[in-house]
Amino acid sequence: MRTFLPRPSARAPEVPPLAAVTVTPAERRRTHLAASVLLEYPDARVRDAVPDVAAVVATLPEPVATRLARFLRVLEERPSAELEAAYVATFDLKRRCSMYLTYYATGDTRKRGTALVRFAEAYRAAGWERGGDELPDYLPMVLEFSARAHDDDAARIAAGLLGAHRDGIEVLRSALTAAQSPWTDVVEAVCLTLGPLDDATRERFVELVTAGPPTEMVGLSALGPYETGPAAQSSATTGVRA
Question: Which segments show compositional bias classed as Polar residues (predicted)?
Fold first, then answer.
């Protein structure tokens, strides 16, 4: 178990906001389902899911489909070991590339546990049973929840979780863009379906890009973005049919 906290990275540049794409609820769910798979550790399970994901991507609006299809080509063309190493170097070791949404606002502070409980409670309120051993704020898990939220109440809860952490998602997009990461396309595809940034969210995003997540260490090392290695998996790759 890794308990170190990497040195803060250089300030990630603020990237221009994306123009939101008009999508239907079904298109949003399909986008989030595809992204929930493609943001997982790129092992054999993810690669085996490529044909099914590609079929879903083909039904999406052009700006979203273009980005996801570009990443699918990366999965098909880049050597497995190279892409797996890039995933670890990006999401396990870069503070601003955390897959855990509450980390951006709370970092390794006492507030983190409460924030995680709120995610778990939101899932229970929607009647959704999460699988795997990942923390409830793990982005692929949140996207899978959004993808499978077919009734109005669950859809509102999913939208609330993603909306409340939109600033963190934008920090992730900014950091991936700065790193010229192939996963930028996947996160951008998600952002395109979340609507435009409001002023308050944009201000929080700028603050987080400037300062990074809080770093108070209080014995919550197991909750940080550096505890999840390639062996940890969520249920997101068990199917890609919305």
Answer: 231-242
Nearest to residue 125, comparing CAs of 101, 168, 163, 155?
155
Cα gap 232→144, rounded to integer Å:
16
Contact partners, residue 169, CB within 8 Å, separation at least 6? 101, 139, 162, 187, 190, 191, 194
Give CA–CA dist 135/120, Å, rounded: 9
Asked if residues 106 and 92 have their Cβ atoms less than 8 Å apart, the reply is: no
For residues 9 and 27, what is the distance between their CA atoms, to the nearest angstrom?
Answer: 36
What is the chain's length? 242
Model-level pTM? 0.79
CATH number of the domain located at residue range(s) 25-230 in this protein: 1.10.3480
| Residue type present at position 240 | V
Mean pLDDT for back-to-back runs of 10 residues, the chain (242 residues):
36 72 96 98 97 98 98 96 97 90 81 87 90 90 95 91 90 94 98 75 47 47 39 45 58
- Contact status, residue 52 vs residue 236, Cβ threshold 8 Å: no
The residue type of 116 is L
- For residues 89 and 151, give the distance between their C-alpha atoms in angstroms, rounded to a whole number: 38
Give DSSP secondary structure letters for 133-178: SS-TTBHHHHHHHHHT--SHHHHHHHHHHHHHTHHHHHHHHHHHHH
Task: Report residue 53 CA to chain centroid gap.
Answer: 17
